[in-house]
Amino acid sequence: MSRTTLKNFKEKAFQKQGVQDEYDALRPEYAIKKKLIAMRKEAGLTQEKLAEIMGTKKSNISRLESFKSSISPRIETLIKYAEATGHELKVDFV
């Protein structure tokens, strides 16, 4: 029996019309979420502690970091998140 890997799954999925385009469109969103999680972990914070610092609920941090969620955070939220983890938000277009 053959084991399906993520790589195999993606190769098959990308053969279907439109899947590659949708995947590429989500790439920036996933990159941001991965960066947020890395920043929080680097700061040694749990979602609970980060929520406390930001004056919000843990469930909001969880949704913000979730790859299943389609929430687009407000700039103000990203600024608060950055400050709470010891970072500064910079926006750039390339």
From TrEMBL:
CDD domains: HTH_XRE. SMART domains: HTH_XRE. Residues 36-94 form the HTH cro/C1-type domain. One of its GO terms (molecular function) is DNA binding. Pfam families: HTH_3. This is XRE family transcriptional regulator. The lineage of its organism: Bacteria, Pseudomonadati, Campylobacterota, Epsilonproteobacteria, Campylobacterales.
